[in-house]
Design goal:
Number of strands: 0
Shape: rod-shaped
Radius of gyration: 42 Å
Structural class: mainly alpha
Number of helices: 5
Order of helices and strands: HHHHH
């Protein structure tokens, strides 16, 4: 009878060990599946994040290129205005020279010449407006931000800031 009890106890211990091992095995399997699922989801999120980052980088490069082009256009436009201003200064000098001419026929001829040249380059106000539009286009809302920060600015001060 003792042997039977020992065998029964031994079998119970073995069954308990098998049960505990099986339960531990199933728990580890569940944890492993959960980890695999989590890794898979994280991998997809990482791939998506990398893709978005590459798209942002490409967008940034495009925007930088566009900004460079706009700034070059703005610089060229400003140089053009400077040239026109120099031209108008030369015209002022010529007008003063004409005033000193005593021969009326020469004066009329010179004045007609000057009038034609000035008419060709009279669009400076239009150029100034285009320049301000281009500045605002390159630097979105530049004038609006300037006025918000300094509400008492005059037009001349705004042009100078541009």
């Amino acid at each position: 009878m003792d042997i039977l009890l020992i065998i029964l106890l031994f079998l119970t211990v073995i069954l308990l060990m098998i049960f505990l091992f099986h339960r531990n095995y199933n728990r580890k399997n569940r944890e492993l599946r959960l980890l695999k699922t989590t890794i898979s989801q994280l991998s997809l999120q990482l791939t998506d994040a990398i893709s978005k980052l590459e798209n942002y980088k490409q967008s940034e490069i495009k925007l930088e290129n566009s900004l460079d082009v706009k700034q070059n256009e703005l610089t060229n436009f400003a140089l053009n205005i400077i040239q026109k201003n120099n031209f108008l200064e030369q015209m002022k000098i010529k007008v003063n020279e004409i005033k000193n001419i005593t021969n009326e026929e020469l004066t009329l001829k010179s004045l007609n010449e000057l009038s034609l040249q000035i008419n060709r380059h009279i669009a400076i106000d239009k150029n100034r407006k285009d320049f301000l539009i281009q500045i605002d286009e390159v630097h979105k809302g530049f004038f609006e931000r300037l006025l918000v920060r300094y509400p008492n600015l005059t037009r001349k001060e705004m042009r100078l800031a541009a």
